[in-house]
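hi! just following up on the protien thing from before. the input was this:
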Amino acid sequence: MEPTTALYRPIGPNELKLIADSGYREFPPRLPGQPIFYPVLNEEYATPIARDWNAKNSEARIGIVTKFQVKTAYLAKFEIQTVGARVHQEYWIPADELAEFNKNIVGLIEVIAEFRQ
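and the predicted 3d structure came back as:
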């Protein structure tokens, strides 16, 4: 079996519906004005985004953390970006590469936490 890397994505309920519509197999295309898809490398970083940002700013007042596995060999073409403290690490996936990124997800996208405001 090919090695995989666990990634996390903090989302809101609208994005979760689109993920569910795909059978929990892919992330939806980015919206206009969103040129980058940002999966993060750890739950410690994803949790406060979902809890403190998504839950406070979504219409439904819900923030969600997802976890999924991506082929490690595919991720090797992207640099890990550190955008604050050492824990604030993420990949910057160009929106036009999201379909290929989705093809490299192994298994299903899981919901691992939900926060309500």
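The longest strand covers residues 105-116.
The two ends are 41 Å apart (CA to CA).
cheers
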